[in-house]
């Protein structure tokens, strides 16, 4: 049973290819716990039930590395990387191209894992390279660290080296929980990973979303490893250890340059932070010939990315008004180059965040830009506070319409109470209404919305349907043909669905999924508008907060006036036949749509499937009921076939929906 659970851990946490549901896995683990409770003598330290100890340590022990954990030299531009390649060729006396292994340089904590006879006996930090801290009790809590190696053929003594890091999604969730509980938030994922590993109580570490990714080996006794670095990594992966899926082999230094360029473009899409690329000579024999200098190997180098954190000075704070009236403080910064771009503005989130930071105008601040996240101020250097710094004063009235500001109980956000009379909210409401997932008015972009409101041609979404070609032709960069196309697109948006219309209204906390649930539950606008809070709470995805926002919207005369004007302008949709969720033909199933569809968009296919009760997911897993694959389907199709998931094409989907579910 332990072996079975270890195999499931490997498939889930290392390969990302689970073959059992979460419920099945939990049942297996509970059964093992029950057996061990019944037969305590059979409990072993490498059991999946023994990942977390109970007694906190008093302090960390010291670990002496048998093979030093060296650092790497860095290259900061292409010329330095080319010079690295030239040095290697001069040293080996050959102009032949060198094969390199390329790996993303994860922004985490370097660690060493020591296995004896396949069992994990020690985990340690890099420390100064010669001596680190014993963190065995903490690394045992990380699911991607196997307590026992899988398979066979591994050396009797094997030291594995890698990086422990925190994925971006886990970091965001951890900080969100910290804010909600009033605890200290972490500056970045690397600090969060380091802080999690230095917990004396492993139960705290176990609650942190840490991952381990291997990149090399250290001590190896009584066993043989392959003669190429890439093949060694493949062995580690077969033995149950995670390696980076972005790793690649190139046949020359030009391949390294191209790999760097490609990953630099995709860097923000990765689910974790990286601060560069590591290039290693792939042949182990050549590594041994090249040797080491001081504290670094000659045969490896890190090509660094631009830093994603930099210090600068806060010049001022301005306040913006969002679509829902939320007042957001925005830091105006002394321009600084961060993460490959020049940053002069950064979000400060809300008043609570300003107070948490202890921020004042004139302070030296640390700015972070990672992923596609808006740059943000993450800390203040209080030791270098300027004598002339001044407190940040939050406005008492809306900076756009001068309406009073309100703050709901239990909310950190302060909002403008001006609603439809606030120009900032009007613009954002119109942009949202015209967006692709709402009424999808092609050609009505953000800049044009700004022009329409500023020119006084539009003051609410209903005014869009009164626009003429003559009105639009007078706007800057809007000729008669463009104006006619936009009028046609606006007219086409009159025919929509109830779900899209509800979403397009921009009601707080009502996203696409909730709007669809509301439409399916009530079937018509009249039934939805007249629903009591108690009836709203019967809808899936609707809790007390969302129900309250819905009733606030329906109880506001100005909102209903706009809806009435929209319907009088011809905006319409077919009422739905209400079907109890449990009676829908695809209720309880999870579908995925991939590739290019020919007779409908993927969004339309998603809406159709949701209309029949299916949940539509973004990725394939063992829980997927069916994959709809159009031309160009790639990795999702491959994964579905590997997992045995049912795959159909667009024609089969249409047949299913039109024939089997037509009633």
UniProtKB/TrEMBL annotation:
<feature type="binding site">
    <location>
        <position position="398"/>
    </location>
    <ligand>
        <name>Zn(2+)</name>
    </ligand>
</feature>
<dbReference type="InterPro" id="IPR036420">
    <property type="entry name" value="BRCT_dom_sf"/>
</dbReference>
<dbReference type="GO" id="GO:0003911">
    <property type="term" value="F:DNA ligase (NAD+) activity"/>
</dbReference>
<dbReference type="InterPro" id="IPR012340">
    <property type="entry name" value="NA-bd_OB-fold"/>
</dbReference>
<comment type="similarity">
    <text>Belongs to the NAD-dependent DNA ligase family. LigA subfamily.</text>
</comment>
<dbReference type="InterPro" id="IPR033136">
    <property type="entry name" value="DNA_ligase_CS"/>
</dbReference>
<feature type="binding site">
    <location>
        <begin position="22"/>
        <end position="26"/>
    </location>
    <ligand>
        <name>NAD(+)</name>
    </ligand>
</feature>
<keyword id="KW-0479">Metal-binding</keyword>
<keyword id="KW-0436">Ligase</keyword>
<dbReference type="InterPro" id="IPR001679">
    <property type="entry name" value="DNA_ligase"/>
</dbReference>
<feature type="binding site">
    <location>
        <position position="126"/>
    </location>
    <ligand>
        <name>NAD(+)</name>
    </ligand>
</feature>
<feature type="binding site">
    <location>
        <begin position="71"/>
        <end position="72"/>
    </location>
    <ligand>
        <name>NAD(+)</name>
    </ligand>
</feature>
<dbReference type="InterPro" id="IPR001357">
    <property type="entry name" value="BRCT_dom"/>
</dbReference>
<dbReference type="InterPro" id="IPR013839">
    <property type="entry name" value="DNAligase_adenylation"/>
</dbReference>
<protein>
    <recommendedName>
        <fullName>DNA ligase</fullName>
        <ecNumber>6.5.1.2</ecNumber>
    </recommendedName>
</protein>
<dbReference type="Pfam" id="PF03120">
    <property type="entry name" value="OB_DNA_ligase"/>
</dbReference>
<feature type="domain" description="BRCT">
    <location>
        <begin position="581"/>
        <end position="659"/>
    </location>
</feature>
<comment type="function">
    <text>DNA ligase that catalyzes the formation of phosphodiester linkages between 5'-phosphoryl and 3'-hydroxyl groups in double-stranded DNA using NAD as a coenzyme and as the energy source for the reaction. It is essential for DNA replication and repair of damaged DNA.</text>
</comment>
<feature type="active site" description="N6-AMP-lysine intermediate">
    <location>
        <position position="105"/>
    </location>
</feature>
<feature type="binding site">
    <location>
        <position position="280"/>
    </location>
    <ligand>
        <name>NAD(+)</name>
    </ligand>
</feature>
<dbReference type="InterPro" id="IPR004149">
    <property type="entry name" value="Znf_DNAligase_C4"/>
</dbReference>
<keyword id="KW-0460">Magnesium</keyword>
<dbReference type="InterPro" id="IPR013840">
    <property type="entry name" value="DNAligase_N"/>
</dbReference>
<feature type="binding site">
    <location>
        <position position="416"/>
    </location>
    <ligand>
        <name>Zn(2+)</name>
    </ligand>
</feature>
<feature type="binding site">
    <location>
        <position position="103"/>
    </location>
    <ligand>
        <name>NAD(+)</name>
    </ligand>
</feature>
<dbReference type="Pfam" id="PF01653">
    <property type="entry name" value="DNA_ligase_aden"/>
</dbReference>
<dbReference type="InterPro" id="IPR004150">
    <property type="entry name" value="NAD_DNA_ligase_OB"/>
</dbReference>
<keyword id="KW-0227">DNA damage</keyword>
<dbReference type="Pfam" id="PF00533">
    <property type="entry name" value="BRCT"/>
</dbReference>
<feature type="binding site">
    <location>
        <position position="401"/>
    </location>
    <ligand>
        <name>Zn(2+)</name>
    </ligand>
</feature>
<dbReference type="Pfam" id="PF03119">
    <property type="entry name" value="DNA_ligase_ZBD"/>
</dbReference>
<dbReference type="Pfam" id="PF12826">
    <property type="entry name" value="HHH_2"/>
</dbReference>
<keyword id="KW-0520">NAD</keyword>
<keyword id="KW-0234">DNA repair</keyword>
<dbReference type="InterPro" id="IPR041663">
    <property type="entry name" value="DisA/LigA_HHH"/>
</dbReference>
<keyword id="KW-0235">DNA replication</keyword>
<dbReference type="InterPro" id="IPR018239">
    <property type="entry name" value="DNA_ligase_AS"/>
</dbReference>
<keyword id="KW-0862">Zinc</keyword>
<feature type="binding site">
    <location>
        <position position="163"/>
    </location>
    <ligand>
        <name>NAD(+)</name>
    </ligand>
</feature>
<dbReference type="Pfam" id="PF14520">
    <property type="entry name" value="HHH_5"/>
</dbReference>
<feature type="binding site">
    <location>
        <position position="422"/>
    </location>
    <ligand>
        <name>Zn(2+)</name>
    </ligand>
</feature>
<feature type="binding site">
    <location>
        <position position="304"/>
    </location>
    <ligand>
        <name>NAD(+)</name>
    </ligand>
</feature>
């Amino acid at each position: 049973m332990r072996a079975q659970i270890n195999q499931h851990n490997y498939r889930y946490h290392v390969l990302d290819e689970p073959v059992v549901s979460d419920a099945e896995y939990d049942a297996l683990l509970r059964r093992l716990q029950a057996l061990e409770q019944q037969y305590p003598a059979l409990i072993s330290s490498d059991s999946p039930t023994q990942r977390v100890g109970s007694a906190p340590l008093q302090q960390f022990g010291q670990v002496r590395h048998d093979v030093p954990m060296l650092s790497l030299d860095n290259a900061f531009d292409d010329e330095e990387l080319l010079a690295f390649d030239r040095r290697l060729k001069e040293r080996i006396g050959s102009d032949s191209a060198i094969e390199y292994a390329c790996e993303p340089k994860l922004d985490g904590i370097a660690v060493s894992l020591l296995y004896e006879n396949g069992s994990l006996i020690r985990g340690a930090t890099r420390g100064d390279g010669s001596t680190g801290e014993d963190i065995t009790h903490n690394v045992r809590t990380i699911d991607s660290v196997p307590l026992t190696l899988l398979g066979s053929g591994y050396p009797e003594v094997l030291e594995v080296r890698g990086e422990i890091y925190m994925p971006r999604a886990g970091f965001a969730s951890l900080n969100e929980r910290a804010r909600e509980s009033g605890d200290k938030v972490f500056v970045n994922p690397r600090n969060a990973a380091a802080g999690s590993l230095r917990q004396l109580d492993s139960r705290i570490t176990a609650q942190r979303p840490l991952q381990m990714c291997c990149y090399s080996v250290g001590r190896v006794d009584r066993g043989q490893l392959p003669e190429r670095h890439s093949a060694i990594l493949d062995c580690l992966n077969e033995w149950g250890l995670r390696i980076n899926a972005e790793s690649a082999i190139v046949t020359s230094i030009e391949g390294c340059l191209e790999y760097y360029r490609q990953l630099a473009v995709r860097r923000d899409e990765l689910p974790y932070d990286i601060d560069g690329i590591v290039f290693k000579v792939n042949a182990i024999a050549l590594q041994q010939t090249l040797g080491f200098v001081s504290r670094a190997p000659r045969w490896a180098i890190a090509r660094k990315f631009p830093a994603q954190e930099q210090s600068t000075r806060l010049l001022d704070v301005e306040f913006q008004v969002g679509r829902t009236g939320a007042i957001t403080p925005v830091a105006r910064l002394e321009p600084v180059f961060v993460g490959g771009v020049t940053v002069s503005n950064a979000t400060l989130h809300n008043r609570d965040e300003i107070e948490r930071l202890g921020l004042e105008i004139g302070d030296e601040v640390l700015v972070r830009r990672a992923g596609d996240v808006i740059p943000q101020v993450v800390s203040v250097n209080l030791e270098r506070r300027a004598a002339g710094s001044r407190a940040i004063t939050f406005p008492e009235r809306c900076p756009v319409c001068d309406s009073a500001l309100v703050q709901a109980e239990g909310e950190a956000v302060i909002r403008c109470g001006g609603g439809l009379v606030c120009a900032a909210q009007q613009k954002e409401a119109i942009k949202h209404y015209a967006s692709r997932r709402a009424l999808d008015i092609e050609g009505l972009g953000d800049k044009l919305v700004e022009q329409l409101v500023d020119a006084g041609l539009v003051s609410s979404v209903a005014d869009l349907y009164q626009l003429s070609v003559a009105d639009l032709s007078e706007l800057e960069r809007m000729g008669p043909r463009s104006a006619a196309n936009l009028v046609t697109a606006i007219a086409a948006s009159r025919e929509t669905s109830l779900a899209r219309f509800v979403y397009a209204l921009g009601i707080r906390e009502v996203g696409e999924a909730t709007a669809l649930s509301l439409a399916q539950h009530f079937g018509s606008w009249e039934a939805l508008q007249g629903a009591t809070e108690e009836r709203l709470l019967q809808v899936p995805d609707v809790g007390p907060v969302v129900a309250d926002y819905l009733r606030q919207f329906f109880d506001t005369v100005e909102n209903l006036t706009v809806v009435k004007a929209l319907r009088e302008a011809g905006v319409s949709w077919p009422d739905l036949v209400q079907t109890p969720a449990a009676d829908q033909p695809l209720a309880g199933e999870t579908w995925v749509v991939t590739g290019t569809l020919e007779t409908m968009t993927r969004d339309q296919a998603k809406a159709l499937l949701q209309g029949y009760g299916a949940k539509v997911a973004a990725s394939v897993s063992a829980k997927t009921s069916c994959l709809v694959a159009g031309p160009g389907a790639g990795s999702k199709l491959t994964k579905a076939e590997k997992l045995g998931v049912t795959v159909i094409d667009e024609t089969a989907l249409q047949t299913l929906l039109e024939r089997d579910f037509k009633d």
